[in-house]
Input
Amino acid sequence: MDGALTRAAIARAARRVLEREGLAGLSMRRVAAELDVKAASLYWHVRNKEELLDLLTDELLTGAEPPPREGPWRDQFREYCLIHRRLLLSVRDAAKVVGGRFVLGPNVLRLLEEQLDRLREAGFTPEDAALATYTLSSYVQGMVLQEQAPLAAAETTGTGRGEIAAAAGEQLRGLPAETFPNLVAMADAISGPAMEARFRFGLELVLDGLEERLARTRAAAAD
Amino acid sequence: MDGALTRAAIARAARRVLEREGLAGLSMRRVAAELDVKAASLYWHVRNKEELLDLLTDELLTGAEPPPREGPWRDQFREYCLIHRRLLLSVRDAAKVVGGRFVLGPNVLRLLEEQLDRLREAGFTPEDAALATYTLSSYVQGMVLQEQAPLAAAETTGTGRGEIAAAAGEQLRGLPAETFPNLVAMADAISGPAMEARFRFGLELVLDGLEERLARTRAAAAD
DNA sequence: ACCTGAACACCGTTCAAGT
DNA sequence: ACCTGAACACCGTTCAAGT
Output
């Protein structure tokens, strides 16, 4: 089934290389080698590396299954975002690949369509529904980008992943207290919270905001 | 003043190269050339390119001035985020450089200290203040990353920047209406809103959520 | 229509050698 | 202490040539 050299096969091969070698190791030559082919061959199917990364971006969303369509919309969208986060986290450097890329691939379209449908059903206006999806996906992407950053840093410096947070705490505590009183005093509060807790905090803020917005929409419609 | 080859001078040179050539054109050799020096020389001051990018990340925040410390905290933080956004937008590929990088440079520390101070004064707990800054900066970064993406795409494809949004709208409208009813029907609502409007929408959601959170904190404290 | 060999102009990084 | 020349092992991309 992998015999044919197609765009889909190239995307899957790129994914395997990314998982194994990271973004820095993702070269046209290695993706080609993964497919037992020479680098130049890829250029028949793909304009350049940018386009290959676009294919890879949609490929990375392949496993994404929407949460069950039951219960309050708020719970559904919390799940949506947690799933999105876990998916990105599950592949090395995934957020860096996806971030800053404008792709309307089949998986993106499928997920977007489903989200918009649920938001409309919940009572959001078309404009608010569209804007809500932008907000949520940007937040998830920005947050996972931050979350995967220390891991990348740990790789280059050779330090362990968990130690990075502790090291950050140390660094903050060691700052001059005259110029950075808050950073010193709040060192634990800053470096302490686990990544998932940080993620959930902001997520609930956005969901709170959306709920208020929906309430106002309904009140206006009732007039 | 630029005679000495220091880490600060290297960071400034990297910024100039980034603005002129973009992230793809930012090579050790070009940064070195910008300083009338050979690439190998940089390695005396900097471990590797990753570390140079870390320096550049903090350098990119150099011009960031906090908004005046007056009026409601909510207005102050709206301004903070708008400033942060404009700053990133003002340098080509800035979001891609900053994103996914864990840097506690002088500028980051200075801005973070100031933000935490204002949040504490507004009545947030240390934990909530720390979490709020994570949420806001992740959101800004994720959003600007999206915003700079079409520009990057326009460069490689040769299309104009404004046309990209229109093209996205066209693409959505042209989708099969049976499988993507919402994407087709809402094509305008999705591709229409200007970038700053999209940014402000999500920003107000987060600020709404923070306001609620603060109200609850105060209610609990009053008991 | 699809793949390859060979080449071009670049990379990041190292290290012995210079001053 | 700081910079360079020269080299190494890679890159992305092109294109004439093969089948």
